[in-house]
């Protein structure tokens, strides 16, 4: 148990900072304009201030309330993110085949007990299946394998 | 601020250009036999839109005539289709990636020369054809002719006109007319012509400079009243509608045209072949009929790449002047 | 008119029941269902991609097929929402809120059955309205000017804060954060790029599909990929009985479906509103009307049927302005209009008189399509819930593949997949700390429209806010919005007072 409600406190403070930073950036870069001819800065700066106010409303009561912080599933976050990142980084230059394969084998590692053979097979299966689904059922031709120049 | 932004954008383009140079070093392709495999046609707008439909028509005809598939790939986004067009500019100039472009690319470059300029980044081949823009007013406005409109607008400064977006050809047409006729008009931008015309139909906004293919049905059903057209000559489909040129605005000619481009450095033989093929397709009776009836085109394309380029340069200069006058132009 | 109606229906059925058209209708709704189930790709991408094929078809068959894909995808979109908490489409995001809790209680089959029923009701009533009142409804679309849109979107935003779980302050904060994120991209009025930091991928704003897939889809995978207990709970027994709703379910769900249909039918007509908003607004209406709002978010059947009826009704009525006014209200409708135009047909006021066989054939094909969807989807439920027996360790990589592939295929821009990842992280943190993701999504969807229409109103009214009250329709909607907030605050206070001793 924490002495404060860490989630709301952190979330509220983050909102205050985001709102203030957003408003500041807006005011520095975009014109606010008049009510008749509003500039691009009017809405973001007002919304930013409101976000900061509501953030404070979330954070302040959280100080005097205790609540344990929820646990983050780090293993899932790391492997899943790494898998998606691998897909994104490779899909354009290598095609969807390798990208799906990498996404599958990396993200599947989030499960501690995943066996390597099963994961590799799943990777190949999803790469072929995903390609076939998009190419033949949906008529969206995405290149399967590319050899970068 | 905007200067800083366009500097970074230029950085991106330089990167793209050097990638293009690298790929030039690859083995030269057999040019006589082009196309030996399928050819990708990048359309920088979404499927189903005007550019897409015209491009698909020509791609189909090219496939039929040259025996290899010409397939359309839509890559929408950016002002004037800049995202897809930049992708085209970055593609290997071997004739296997070609693409479409429109007058909106020129208009976008007139406003902000930084991100993309078809004249600078691409090689024009031919103009498929063009449609035009009409001034239509809501029937609630008590005017029947352009002369009545001008008189009315002088007594009521601040009449509103809708457009498909800031810096669009529809918008700049309004800017040019207001300046040349000495009127005070208020611009109301929308996201796209469809949304814009809705508020004119309901009378919330007074008028719109609308592209003919979208405006046509509302003109035929008399939901909107056309006053003048921006084509150089009267439009065959609406022979009674006066042009702005006739009404005394000599350079108020705005065409919404569509054309074919290739990446810079594409071999001459391929370019010549494309020019010849497009020219032949445009002379096909069935194609011509489809272009005129369905796309509301006038029949005039442009088959000479040099004349097409000169035309684009003149357009760029004209729109640049209008954008500067409207305070929209970026450096 | 009503005498005409019979002959028009017969004319329409004649067209719709031609073997060719029947086949393409089936093909369309089948594809639509698949597209709906696969996260990421929505009706827009699918229609855009399949559009070229239809160039070689008869115009009527072509439009029937494209339309089938469009409304079929709404049927399928809810499947993944219920089973996996990953909406197949943004318009199925509202269905996650109660559909997934139902699945966790072993009631996935019931949820899917109710959704099929609710969708059918929504779709059918939408079509009936279209048959009887097309010209009238079309004129309603024209009554909505910028002030009315602003009022309506404001009502939607306040509804978003109301629907959120837990504190209304957090809900409002998330709505506002959504609005702020929605301002990213080119400003409609000045052409200035806001918060794009020079990236051309941001000039059109953040992709709504990417935001939805990240907030709901990826964050769900983060939350459950390593959760073993969750995996066990999924493998519940599947019997035919487990798919049948109880009488109590039906008693609650049926009126919700009808109300959802009403909300959806009206919002569908308005170009620019759309089915995502319809789904969320009908959800919040149900929560507002419920005697016990705390059931929502914990598997309330009304929370599943109402949004599904709404988005299906909206999909049907969306054709009204397109076909009868020639106004393409949304990108999908623009493509369908393009398809009509390439076949030499000009949608608009004249279409009803010039091409009655096409118009009525299309309308009757919607009926056929909705029936086909029902017939297609009911047996599929048995197969879908079997998905839950697949171990999650094999399922979640597949979910990721479909999300990434689906989002990437829309514009082939890897940036959008990075966006998914970023919003996945944000969604996960929000989930952990109890910040409502639905409110953020709704703020993101509605925010740009609120801003756009407010600024447009100010230009037209020359800076005088009085216009909002002077126009009766916008005044009425704004009164409704104020009432909604008033009731929410009042009942919130009442509940708080009641709960006070317990909380301390």
From TrEMBL, chain A:
Keywords: Membrane, Transmembrane, Transmembrane helix. InterPro entries: DUF1468. The chain crosses the membrane at residues 12-30, 42-64, 76-106, 118-138. The keyword Transmembrane helix applies. Pfam families: TctB. Residues 13-143 form the DUF1468 domain. It comes from the Bacteria. This is Tripartite tricarboxylate transporter TctB family protein.
UniProtKB/TrEMBL annotation, chain B:
It comes from the Bacteria. Keywords: Receptor. InterPro entries: BUG (IPR005064), Bug_dom1 (IPR042100). It holds the Pfam family TctC. Belongs to the UPF0065 (bug) family. PANTHER family: BLR1237 PROTEIN, TRICARBOXYLATE-BINDING PROTEIN. This is Tripartite-type tricarboxylate transporter receptor subunit TctC. It comes from Chelatococcus asaccharovorans. The lineage of its organism: Bacteria, Pseudomonadati, Pseudomonadota, Alphaproteobacteria, Hyphomicrobiales.
UniProtKB/TrEMBL annotation, chain C:
InterPro entries: DUF112_TM. The chain crosses the membrane at residues 21-51, 63-84, 110-137, 149-166, 172-190, 202-223, 265-285, 358-385, 392-410, 430-451, 472-493. The keyword Membrane applies. Residues 22-442 form the DUF112 domain. It holds the Pfam family TctA. It comes from the Bacteria. Keywords: Membrane, Transmembrane, Transmembrane helix. PANTHER family: TRICARBOXYLIC TRANSPORT PROTEIN. This is TctA family transporter.
């Amino acid at each position: 148990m924490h002495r404060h409600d860490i989630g709301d406190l952190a979330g509220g403070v983050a909102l205050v900072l985001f709102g203030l930073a957003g408003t500041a950036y807006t005011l520095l870069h975009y014109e606010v304009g008049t009510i008749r001819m509003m500039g691009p800065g009017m809405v973001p700066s007002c919304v930013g201030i409101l976000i900061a106010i509501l953030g404070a409303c979330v954070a302040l009561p959280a100080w005097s309330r205790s609540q344990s912080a929820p646990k983050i599933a780090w293993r899932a976050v790391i492997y899943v993110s790494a898998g998606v990142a691998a897909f994104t980084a490779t899909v354009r230059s290598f095609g969807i085949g390798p990208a799906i394969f990498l996404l599958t084998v990396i993200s599947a590692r989030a499960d501690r007990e995943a066996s390597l053979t099963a994961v590799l097979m799943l990777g190949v299966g999803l790469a072929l299946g995903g390609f076939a689904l998009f190419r033949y059922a949906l008529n969206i031709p995405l290149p399967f394998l590319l050899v970068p120049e | 601020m905007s200067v800083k932004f366009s500097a970074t954008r230029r950085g991106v383009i330089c990167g793209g250009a050097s990638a293009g140079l690298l790929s030039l070093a690859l083995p030269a392709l057999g040019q006589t036999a082009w196309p030996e495999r399928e050819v990708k046609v990048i359309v920088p707008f979404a499927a189903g839109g005007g550019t897409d439909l015209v491009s698909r028509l020509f791609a189909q005809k090219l496939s039929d005539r040259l025996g290899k598939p010409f397939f359309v790939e839509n890559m929408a986004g950016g002002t004037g289709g800049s995202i897809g067009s930049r992708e085209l500019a970055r593609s290997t100039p071997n004739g296997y990636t070609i693409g479409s472009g429109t007058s909106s690319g020129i208009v976008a470059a007139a406003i902000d020369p930084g991100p993309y300029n078809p004249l600078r980044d691409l090689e024009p081949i031919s103009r498929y054809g063009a449609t035009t823009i009409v001034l239509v007013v809501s029937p609630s406005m008590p005017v029947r002719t352009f002369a009545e409109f001008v008189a009315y607008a002088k007594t009521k400064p601040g009449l509103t006109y809708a457009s498909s977006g800031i810096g669009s050809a529809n918008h700049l047409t309004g800017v040019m007319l207001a300046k040349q006729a000495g009127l005070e008009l208020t611009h109301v931008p929308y996201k796209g012509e469809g949304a814009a015309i809705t508020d004119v139909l309901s009378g919330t906004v007074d008028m719109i400079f609308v592209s003919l293919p979208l405006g046509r049905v509302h003109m035929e059903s008399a939901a909107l009243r056309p006053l003048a057209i921006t084509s150089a000559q009267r439009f065959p489909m609406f022979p009674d509608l006066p042009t702005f040129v006739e009404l005394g605005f000599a350079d108020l000619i705005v065409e919404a045209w569509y054309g074919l481009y290739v990446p810079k450095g594409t071999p001459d033989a391929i370019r010549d072949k494309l020019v010849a093929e497009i020219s032949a397709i445009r002379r096909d009776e069935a194609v011509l009929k489809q272009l005129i009836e369905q796309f509301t085109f006038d029949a005039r394309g442009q088959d000479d790449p040099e004349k097409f380029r000169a035309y684009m340069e003149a357009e760029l200069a004209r729109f640049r002047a209008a954008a500067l006058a409207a305070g929209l132009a970026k450096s | 008119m009503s005498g005409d109606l019979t002959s028009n229906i017969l004319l329409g059925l004649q067209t719709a029941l031609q073997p060719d058209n029947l086949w393409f209708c089936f093909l369309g709704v089948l594809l639509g269902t698949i597209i709906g189930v696969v996260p990421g790709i929505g009706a827009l991408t699918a229609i855009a991609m399949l559009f070229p094929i239809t160039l070689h078809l008869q115009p009527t068959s072509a439009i029937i097929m494209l339309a089938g894909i469009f409304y079929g995808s709404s049927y399928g979109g809810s499947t993944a929402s219920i089973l996996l908490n990953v909406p197949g489409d943004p318009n199925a995001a509202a269905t996650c809120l109660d559909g997934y809790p139902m699945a966790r209680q072993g009631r996935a089959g019931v949820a899917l059955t109710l959704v099929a029923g609710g969708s059918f009701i929504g779709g059918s009533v939408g079509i009936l309205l279209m048959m009887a009142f097309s010209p009238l409804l079309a004129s309603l679309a024209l009554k909505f000017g910028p002030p009315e849109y602003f009022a309506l979107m404001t009502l939607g935003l306040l509804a978003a804060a109301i629907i959120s779980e837990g504190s209304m302050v957090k809900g409002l904060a998330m709505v506002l954060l959504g609005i702020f994120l929605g301002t990213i991209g080119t400003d409609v009025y000045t052409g200035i790029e806001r918060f794009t930091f020079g990236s051309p991928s941001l000039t059109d704003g953040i992709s709504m599909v990417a935001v939805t897939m990240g907030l709901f889809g990826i964050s769900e995978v983060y939350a459950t990929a390593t959760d073993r207990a969750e995996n066990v709970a999924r493998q519940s027994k599947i019997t035919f009985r487990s798919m049948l709703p109880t009488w109590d379910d039906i008693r609650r769900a049926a009126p919700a479906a009808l109300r959802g249909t009403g909300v959806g039918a009206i919002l569908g007509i308005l170009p620019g509103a759309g089915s995502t908003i319809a789904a969320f607004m009908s959800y919040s209406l149900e929560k507002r009307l419920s005697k016990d709002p705390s059931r929502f978010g914990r598997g309330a059947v009304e929370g599943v049927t109402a949004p599904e009826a709404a988005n299906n009704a909206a999909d049907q009525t969306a054709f009204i302005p397109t076909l009868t006014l020639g106004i393409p209200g949304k990108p999908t409708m623009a493509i369908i209009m393009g398809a009509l135009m390439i076949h030499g047909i000009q949608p608009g006021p004249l279409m009803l008189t010039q091409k009655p066989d096409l118009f009525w054939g299309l309308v009757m094909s919607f009926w056929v399509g909705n029936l086909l969807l029902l017939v297609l989807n009911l047996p599929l439920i048995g197969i879908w819930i079997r998905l839950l027996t697949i171990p999650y360790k094999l399922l979640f990589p597949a979910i990721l593949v479909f999300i990434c592939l689906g989002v990437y295929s829309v514009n082939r821009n890897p940036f959008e997949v990075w966006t998914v990842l970023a919003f996945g992280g944000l969604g996960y943190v929000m989930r952990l700390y109890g910040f409502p993701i639905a409110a953020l999504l709704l703020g993101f969807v509605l925010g740009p429209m609120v801003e756009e229409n407010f600024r447009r109103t100010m230009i037209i009214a020359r800076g005088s806010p009085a216009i909002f009250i002077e126009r009766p329709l916008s005044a009425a909607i704004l009164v409704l919005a104020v009432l909604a907030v008033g009731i929410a605050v009042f009942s919130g206070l009442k509940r708080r007072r009641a709960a006070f001793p317990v909380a301390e």
